[in-house]
Every structure is written in structure tokens, then in C-alpha cells.
Amino acid sequence: KQLNNKQLIISHMIYLFFNTIVSCYIFSGVYLTDLTFIDENPNTTEEGYVNFSKRRMVFNVISRIQQYQNTHYNLQPVIQIQNLLLKVNCVDEQTLYNLSLKREPRNVDRSEIE
Q1: How far is CA 54 from CA 27, 38, 42, 66, in A?
Q2: Is the Cβ–Cβ distance between 11 and 1 less than 8 Å?
Q3: pTM, to two decimals
Q4: How far from chain centre, in Å, is Cα 86?
Q5: Contact at 8 Å (CB) between 31 and 63?
Q6: Helix/strand/coil percentages in the chain, nearest 5
Q7: pLDDT at 114 > cutoff 70
Q8: What CA–CA distance (Å, rounded) separates 24 from 28?
Q9: To bridge 25 with a disulfide, which of 35, 43, 68, 78 should be the other Cys (CB 3.0-4.6 Å)?
Q10: How many angstroms separate the CA atoms of 52 and 43, rounded?
Q11: 73: which residues sit within 8 A by CB, 6+ positions away?
């Protein structure tokens, strides 16, 4: 399977990001997505042995998370952003859940979602 240009660019960006030591933290949802996909692999091989490949992938993701947790971030408060966030209207959890179901209903094929 050949990768298209967009996939190559994204793959290269991810490679550069994870192989550069910088004081930044990628959105944690990326790590959770990685761990979710890894978890879908079997815990054992067909022969019944521990799936060390899966364990290695989990280790790599967790070590990246720990790398960013152990990095010192010299963050300074930005009053304008604080004030903006304080003005945001919050939506209760039930409303968010209903919006989520409306956007991605349960037991529906992806092609049926608007």
C-alpha cells in the first residue's frame, strides 16, 4: 500500500515530534488513541506466548508520556487568556452526552452518520 502525500507529511511530523527533545506536550488524546489501538492486539501469540511486541509498544507510549511529565515547563500566566476562559459558558455533562449521541449515534454504520 502506497502512502499519499498527506500521510507521508503526517508520518514525518510525528517522527520528528517524537524524536526531538523539546519542552512541549502533545495532546494526551494522541497517546490514548495509540494505547487503544495497541490494546486491540492479542495479549498472547498464536502459540500461547506473551505478546512482547505489544508490551514493547505500550512501553514506548508510556515512556513518551513520562518524558513529557518529567520536563520542566516554565509557564507564565497570560491574563487575557485567563479572562477569556472565565467568560466561556459551560455546558453540563448530560447536554454534552446528548450532543455526542446526536453526532455519533450508537449502533450506526459510519456511512449513515451525517
Answers
A1: 22, 7, 8, 18
A2: no
A3: 0.48
A4: 26
A5: no
A6: 60, 0, 40
A7: no
A8: 12
A9: 68
A10: 8
A11: 23, 25
